[in-house]
Amino acid sequence: MSATTTPQTRARHTVLGAGPAGTALAGELVRRGHPVRLVDRKGDGPAPAGVERFAADVSTREGALAAVGGAAVVYHCVNVGYHLQVEVMPRVQEAVLAAVEASGARLVVLDTLYPYGETGGAVMTEDSPWQATSRKGRMRAELDERYLAAHRAGRARVVLGRSADFVGPGVLNSSLGAAVFPGALTGGEVLALGDIDLPHSHTDIRDVAAGLATLGERPEGDGRVWHLPTAPAVSTREIHTMIEKCVGRPLNVVVLEEARPFGPFDDLFMAEYAEMFYQHTEPQIMDSSACQRAFGVAPTPLADTVEATVAWYAERLAR
């Protein structure tokens, strides 16, 4: 930034989706000096200081165009109910792609590991084959192909950032979320899925935000998939040990061998999650070294993530 440029005169960065990832990203962008708009359907929720809230339905072209107006960079962090994803996410993509094509804004897409499908435990890199067989995995792969095709065709400037399972302050609906930390703090039941001795990658939500913000600032990364900064995979049992050290008590772990309702995960969610349960019956190892080398970013150590997450949940429970 030049000496005559202030954050107020810099082009806006617009974040679509005000869930944990979008909210964390908005805060990260403000800390980096960008004017930020945070978009969801209502536009009236809490937001980090310096963030403009904006209401729009970005599953429609009109809503997406209104949301991205005036933005230099748009971040697609929209998600919907698990049972609605296959139906709704393609509509969101169509509307958002059309909007950035019309506006000229760059598009940074938050993505998942779903397109890789079952790997047999092989380490996932950006060069791993996309071989998903699940409905949601195939859907994600098809969307990603369309994003990259739009970039290759010169219709839009697009980059994808893939994350492993979220963990961290503010994360509720995750295998390391509201079904784990409240029980750990109160002596209640703690959910675990599948084989808890298999290595499983988790991405700190703050590293999701930092990785996406970096992709937004570094257009030389456009036109491809990047794995967002993620700490080395460890087993769920090892994470439980980290949590126990933080809370000062042993955990009362309930291991589900198959997808069935538990705590915040109801029948509807678990019925949809069943096809993704392979993620807990084989190693899920994500390698983010390419992103780390290219952009000089580093993941938060997992023990620090666990400590921060325990502290966030303790404060939440004390309210």
Notes on the protein architecture:
With 319 residues, the chain is of the alpha/beta class. The protein has a domain at 10-164 and 202-230: Rossmann fold, CATH 3.40.50. The protein is built from ten helices and 13 strands. The protein has a seven-stranded parallel β-sheet, sandwiched between helices. The radius of gyration is 19 Å and the shape is globular. The termini are far apart. Residues 1-9 have low confidence and may be disordered. It holds the Pfam family Epimerase. InterPro entries: Epimerase_deHydtase (IPR001509), NAD(P)-bd_dom_sf (IPR036291), NAD(P)-dependent_oxidoreduct (IPR051783). Residues 16-221 form the NAD-dependent epimerase/dehydratase domain.
